[in-house]
Amino acid sequence: MGVSFRDAARFWLQLGLTSFGGPAGQIALMHRELVERRRWIDEERFVHALNFCVLLPGPEAQQLATYVGWLLHGRLGGIVAGALFVLPSALLLWALSWLYVEHGTLPAVAALFDGLQPAVVALIAVALPRIARRSLRSAVAVSLAVGAFLALFLDLLAFPLVVLLGAAVGLFSLRPAAQPAPPSKPVSPASTLRVAVACLVLWWAPILLAGWLQGWRGLLAQQGLFFSETACVTFGGAYAVLPYVADAAVTRFGWLSSEQMLDGLGLAETTPGPLIMVVQFVGFLGGWRGTSAGSPLASATLSAALVTWVTFLPCFLWVFVGAPYVEQLRGSRRIAGALAGVSAVVVGVIAQVALWFGAQVLLRGPNGEVDTFAVLLWAAAFIALAWKKVPSVAVVLACAAVGLIRHSLMSA
User: Fold this and answer.
1) Interatomic CA distance for residues 154 and 282, integer angstroms
2) How far is Cα of residue 123 from the mean position of the Cα atoms in its chain?
3) Distance CA 9, CA 87 (A)
4) Is 19 in contact with 29 (CB distance < 8 Å)?
5) What is the pLDDT of residues 229-283, one digit of tens each?
6) Distance CA 51, CA 230 (A)
7) CA distance 170 to 242
8) What is the pLDDT of residues 201-222, one digit of tens each?
């Protein structure tokens, strides 16, 4: 594909610093940068990877970055892409968590978020029609997208079931032209096994060490086990699993209060990277409250690091084990049909998320009326992205700066 490792690493770091807006916004940003602007990967390869990542537990945007990094530069490329997608968010949220427990609420962060959110809505609005044009090429595909939108909007079906139904319909009803499998040697089961064992060892070694040092009722062992469990069942994005996490963290373990959980969600939404990063905040406050290693800050940092590790390490396992086989299946018309069904469903899912997120951002006046500032900023961002072709990063940073300037003027 002719992409240097250095250029790719620089892009993954840039993505990690600017990937705001949850999976829909992050996927839109990657599509714009990787497919349209840089042309590092073609549309069919991008959609094929996305469809596979949607089927996995965990943050699909981070897994998509890992998959594309693997396509470009093998496992090392996948590790760099996936790690840099998460690392800036993890470091920033750690700092915000410490400021939160020391100083309480952070008005400047809220102001930053006020500027970022309209930019994210604009990114999704620009990307959605383009993805739809390439994914909805038949009446069946359009019906799947509409059905997925209504099922989620009306809360009729859970996200995983919607995706599985889309795959089943596509398997029997869609027959797109399958892409030829890449000219490479067959996947080695022995290599797959080695990768799986290495990932499992890396995943579970810190948990076993914590259990051995502190006992299985200790804070670190409890956090490691619980968040390993959630990493395996996080289908449908962070919002699908957050009620379960909140109930367990507040009621069963007492790591934080319900008000603190809501504050943590707000902080996670203001940082780049996956929204599921809120679990790091949960781990941090649990470690601060139930000091298990030296000072409260040291304990909180250790807990936050462990929770982040067991949440995202499994993502590399799913991708590195599954991606080579998924690439080999690109030559199967049946598999192509199933993934085309998932692709159609994804359009409906993104549309539903865009509508929900857009309403939250643009109708956030005191009584739910239109927020004039947000609408004007969204319109400016949309024009810059769609018509002026301004790079996504520049638009996101400019909107963030506008939010901060507005806060400063109103506070003066």
Assistant:
1) 30
2) 15
3) 13
4) yes
5) 999 877 666 666 776 788 889 989 999 988 788 678 767 766 788 889 989 999 9
6) 21
7) 30
8) 999 999 999 999 999 999 999 9
